[in-house]
Amino acid sequence: MTSIDLHCHSTASDGTLTPAELVRAGAAAGLDVMAITDHDTTGGWAAAAAARPEGLQLVRGAELSCRWHGADPAIPLHLLAYLFDPDEPVLAAELTRLREDREQRGERIVAKLRADGVPITWDEVWGYAAGGSVGRPHIAQALIRAGLVKTTDEAFASAWLGARYFVPKSDLDVFDAVRAVREAGGVAVFAHPRATKRGRVVPDELIVALADAGLFGLEADHEDHSPAERAQIRALAERLGLAVTGSSDFHGTHKTVQLGAFRTAPEMYEKIVAAASGAPVLG
Ligand code: AMP
Ligand code: ZN
Ligand code: FE
Ligand code: FE
């Protein structure tokens, strides 16, 4: 059976394995196909490609921080973008802007924490990000080091990064994002669309509108979805003619989920590859 995991993070964002370690771990876990999908960056692509073990197909992608402005306040969401041209100027400029905004936002969160006497520094957090896209898991790491919480999950509770010390990012409008991914020859899949544990989720009407705008698929099998939610997403995808995927959203030790814990069916993967023209699958 072909084992396909299309959503994995490395140290290019908030995963804990380097891109090279990630592809080796993917092969060791028995994956036939894996995607590297760091937040708002293609910074891990080259190292992952260089270290790709024989027999592992590598899909290069990214997870884009987006927002839907049809609700008040706007609802954040994530789009997985696969096999796009990393040099296409509009999308590349947006990715740069998103990463810069992550830095400013991270500094603001650290300043809020410090104002309440929490003994962490931006330098420390910046060091954990190690040149990759900065995210709250890096701030969580500093909170763990300072002995204030024991786990990343605890750091995301409302007393900490989930609400009290939450600062929003200035994300990409989701319709602009779908358009930019397509213009760059890529394929856009809505990541964990029903993940209520992360906050508000969007209504089905938005998914209908996104499908009209060129969205290609929905991530159904994800640890943050209940079995009922997975079934609802499959039904919606079928109704709208969208592909469905399943993936681990692996983050190394920042999460407990393992590589290949959720997988994508080969026929869905083939549809994604056939629809993309911005970058080839490697291997
Ligand atoms: P950020 O991108 O900075 O807003 O941080 C959110 C990221 O942290 C998401 O990619 C999540 O995958 C990751 N994360 C890790 N643990 C958690 C958690 N317990 N709750 C929410 N997000 C988490
Ligand atoms: Zn993440
Ligand atoms: Fe996500
Ligand atoms: Fe993710």
Structure description:
The protein is of the alpha/beta class and 283 residues long. The chain has a single domain (4-96, 169-275), classed as Metal-dependent hydrolases (TIM Barrel), CATH 3.20.20. The chain has ten helices and eight strands. The chain has helices at 19-28, 45-51, 89-115, 122-129, 136-145, 152-155, 174-183, 204-213, 227-240, 266-275, and strands at residues 4-8, 33-39, 57-68, 75-82, 172-173, 187-190, 217-221, 243-246. Strands 1, 2, 3, 4, 5, 6, 7 and 8 form an eight-stranded mixed beta sheet that branches. Helix 2 links the parallel strand 2 (33-39) and strand 3. The longest helix is centred in the middle third of the chain and has 27 residues, at 89-115. The chain is globular, with a radius of gyration of 18 Å. It starts with a strand and ends in an 8-residue tail after the last helix. The structure holds adenosine monophosphate (AMP), zinc ion and fe (iii) ion (FE) (2 copies). One fe (iii) ion is lined by residues 63, 78, 191-192.
The shape is: globular
CATH topology annotation = TIM Barrel
What's the total count of β strands?
8
Count of separate structural domains: 1
CATH superfamily: Metal-dependent hydrolases
The CATH architecture designation is Alpha-Beta Barrel
Proportion in β-strands: 15-25%
User: What is the CATH domain class?
Assistant: Alpha Beta
Q: Bound compounds, please?
A: adenosine monophosphate, zinc ion, fe (iii) ion
Helix count?
10
Indicate the mean pLDDT: 97
- Helicity, as a percent range: 25-40%
**Helix/strand order, N-terminal first:** EHEHEEHHHHEHEHEHEH
Main sheet specs: 8 strands, mixed
End-to-end separation: 18 Å
Oligomer kind: single chain
GO molecular function: 5'-3' DNA exonuclease activity; 5'-3' RNA exonuclease activity
Domain Polymerase/histidinol phosphatase N-terminal: 4-68
Organism: Actinoplanes philippinensis
InterPro entries: PHP_dom, PHP_domain, Pol/His_phosphatase_N, Pol/histidinol_Pase-like
